[in-house]
Design brief:
The protein has eight helices and no strands. By secondary structure, it is an all-alpha fold.
């Protein structure tokens, strides 16, 4: 960063706008996965998502937003397991996309772009096979999740979310790279706001 550079307000506002857009898209992603089992609309759900997102900024890892969203739903008399399950599925999809981006970026950094297609293709194929296997074995997985207890309850909701909502899963998969790109653009804009040059 440039020494003595002042904060460029226009770039900083752009970064804030990009972050806002990414959180709106992120909340829509989670809501799509959970809305069938919720009694509230997206606009009511949004403040809870923002509170959980803010908590994730101070709690290590991805625990903060999952925990925050679950607590917010529990306080409003909703099934907190639904929030935990939806957020977990969303995190898994985001993780897989990040791995795809990482494989592609690492291959380009190493100067071996031909590896990008190989790594990305292999990871995508693995993701597809795992998804197909989970769908074909959904009844078996559901039977394994029968019973009582917090963990089993969460697993049950995750299985319902992952196997009985293919359209919502597809929308999440398609929207997630846009969300990640918005976050990356927000970093880029903030670097410029702090005086970095292209």
């Amino acid at each position: 960063l440039a020494r003595g550079a002042e904060l460029d307000i226009e770039w900083a506002l752009l970064a804030a706008l990009l972050i806002l857009c990414s959180t709106l898209l992120g909340s829509a992603n989670v809501y799509l996965l959970a809305h069938r089992q919720l009694s509230v609309g997206w606009l009511t759900f949004l403040p809870g998502f923002w509170m959980a997102w803010a908590l994730s900024l101070v709690v290590p890892g991805q625990v903060g937003d999952i925990l925050g969203l679950s607590l917010w739903m529990k306080r409003r008399g909703m099934r907190w397991e639904v929030g935990t399950a939806a957020a977990t599925v969303d995190k898994l999809i985001s993780l897989l996309w990040m791995l795809l981006f990482a494989c592609w970026g690492l291959a380009l950094y190493l100067g071996k772009p031909h590896l990008a297609s190989t790594w990305v293709g292999s990871l995508a194929a693995g993701m597809g096979l795992c998804t197909l296997g989970g769908y074909l074995l959904r009844e078996r997985l559901r039977s394994l999740a029968q019973g009582r207890g917090v963990v089993r309850s969460i697993v049950q909701v995750i299985l319902v979310t992952a196997t009985e909502q293919p359209r919502q899963i597809l929308f999440n998969v398609l929207l997630t790279p846009i969300k990640i790109s918005l976050i990356a653009a927000a970093y880029w804009a903030m670097f410029h706001a702090l005086g970095a040059s292209s």
